[in-house]
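For this section, I looked closely at a protein sequence along with its fold in token form, which I now present.
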Amino acid sequence: QVQLVESGGGLVQAGGSLKLSCVASGLPFSSYRMGWFRQAPGKEREFVAGINWSGDTTNYADSVKGRFTISRDNAKSTVYLQMNTLKPEDTAVYYCNAQAFGNTYWGQGTQVTVSS
């Protein structure tokens, strides 16, 4: 059974930092493209960042470029999202995503709240 378990969310003041982690199990992690998405109240889920299987290619939403960094450790089956210079508009539930072989998996989400 595939599981993606996020952690690291919380409450932080504007300008602060958080690092999210997502541990995967039940899938060949190093074969999967991994990503982070977020969903704010009343809004649709949106793409935040993605990373290819080897970690040498990343892409970001314009709203987080230069502030967020996605990385992965295939030995630990873990993907990370380092979030710096957080803004109130970054407040959302953040979801881990795995894609490969026509499959898509989601984690349960972790809440990030940025106070002004």
User: Anything to note?
Assistant: DSSP finds no helices and eleven strands in the chain. Residues 49 and 60 are 4 Å apart (CA to CA).
